[in-house]
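Order emerges. As here.
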Amino acid sequence: MAGNRTPGKRQNSGPGTSRRYAWDTVLVLIDLHTHSTASDGTDSPAELVRAASAAGLSVVALTDHDTTAGWDEAAAASPAGLTLVRGMELSCTGRGEDGTSVPVHLLAYLFDPENEAFAAERARLRGERVTRLRAIAENMAADGLPIDPDAVLASAGEAAGRPHLGQALIEAGYVSDMDAAFAGPLATGGKYYVGKVDTPLDVAVEMIAAAGGVSVLAHARARKRGRILDLDHIRELTPLGLGGVEVHHMDHSPEDTVVMAELAAELDLIVTGSSDYHGTNKTVKLGEYTTDPEQYDRLIAAARS
């Protein structure tokens, strides 16, 4: 949990606890939310799975934003003893506590990447990312911060995002680090900000289910990001096929962790804990937050049902 984040120890066993589990007499550490250079991480997919193994993980999920582009490289490079879970983090919109629309992320696991409707929606989202990146770059250039969007897109891969602009700002000397980039030029709602049309949560949940996958809400109470989903909205998603909620995450306060754990128990949802690892773009370490093996088993079973 937040405030007690020791790499190699479980941070998701309930309020006030941090303990390891033996699973079939073997210690299993499971991290179900990571990013590579296929989106906004700094490790290549191959580097990420090797780092996961070195960190002592037994299971790692690759969940890049709106793309499956890193799957094959990660699978080919996965060391012996490491299980790779193929996943993705989908850009969505949902209903916030105040009734307004808020951006939110939905993790999708073990879906069929060739499902036509879901593949088309992922492609649309990636197009939205390109359009937004160009628009933000134009806004900054008009104000004396010239960044070449073509150069950024060339290095960004399929899922171009604001972190790629942030890296360009750092390299150009306009800001000192990524935190400064997002506190300044790239701030949500700031003078250069441009939104994008993301997938409504209810539509996304149904798409993932139709593609044979399992959906898990990511960091649904991330207050410092301004992304607080209305709890009743989450309740409404359950009959549509929502599989679980990411309860244990660095952006959840201890109080919100308890709220999400109680909601998961109420709705019988899978409970996950994950690092949301981005390499050097975030300070969190692989395995800093993890998922209990029993909950991982539920996720695997749900994908097979």
